[in-house]
Every structure is written in structure tokens, then in C-alpha cells.
Description:
Layout: H1 13-37, H2 40-47, H3 51-57, H4 61-81, H5 89-106, H6 108-119, H7 126-149, H8 158-174, H9 176-182, H10 189-205
Amino acid sequence: MPLSDGSTKKPSRIQQRNRHLILDAALEVFSRHGFRGATLDQIATQAGLSKPNILYYFGGKEDIHLTLLSQLMETWLDPLVEMNAAGDPVEEILNYVQRKLDMAQQLPRESRLFAGEILQGAPRMRPELESKLKPLFDEKCAVIQSWIQQGRLPPLDPRHLIFSIWASTQHYADFESQVSLLMNEGDDTYASAATHLNMMFRTLLQG
């Protein structure tokens, strides 16, 4: 809360708790209904707060959505950041696959939030994608290309390799209801997915 001297007052515990409640409720609502289908009334009901209370903390639905996306971006980039140019190429890429699969398992709502924004053309997230994702993506593609030039990986397109990793890992979060329906009851979906993806990408990377 801004003060007269321009400084900011630290939020109280109740304010911090309410912001957390609102953002968690909004994550659930946005991941289930998308930005267009979500309403402040739904978020208020999910949070157990009144609509005016929601508007005390945020300027509206778009403000909440943008806050969630901004918080998500750093977490979303971390697995790619950890790809180490000094490591073994095959193991570094396979570790990246596993980190992305772990994220799909641990953060399915966040994955669907991100996917929903991208499917709409990234109207609220494009500046973050341009300023953060694109430079990191280019950097890691250059790392993979250097491994290829050194003969440590077979000739492949680094961009499509990363796209394939995203598609095959995030699928388990974004299409969770379909995956659950098609897997046999009692199967450990993520354990079997990890085994399959490791074998598939290892075969590709070892040529």
C-alpha cells in the first residue's frame, strides 16, 4: 500500500493470506475455464471471499490473470535455464525432459493456464515471451547446435527438438482428463511416461 512519502507499506498477514487465496482460486478457475470463461464471481466463490474483497486487492480479472502469468514465467523457464553447456549433451537433454515432466505432474494447473494464454495468441504474455523466453530459447538452441557441430549429437533441428519435448511432456498436464481416461486404472502414469520418454529421446539423441 503506497504511503505519502512514496514508500510502500508491507502487507499485513491477512492481506498476504487473502492475496494468496485469490491467486490460488484464480489459478483453479482460469485453468478450468480459460480466461474468457472465467469470472470474478467464480474466483470469489472459489476463494471464499466477496467480489468487492477481490477488487480491493486486484484491478479486475485481467490484473489477476497477468499477475499469475508473470509469477509463472520464472518457474516455467527454470528447467531450460538448468541445461548446462558443459555437461554431457544426451544426459543434459534427458534431464531437461524429466524436469519438464516433473513440472507437468507437480504444476498441472499452471501448465493449463500457460497453454490457454498461448492458444489465445498470448495477448497478455507476449512481452514476457519476447523478453525472457525468446533469448533463453535462442541461447539453448545455440548450445544444442554446438553439440551437433562437435559430433556429440546427431544432426537435428534444436528448435524442433525443444518443441517436441514441450509437446510430449506438457501433454500429460494439459490433457490430463484424457490421459486419465485412457490409462489403465492403477497405472503410474508419470513413472511409465518417464521411462517411455527417456527411451524415446535417448534413441533419437544417440542416433
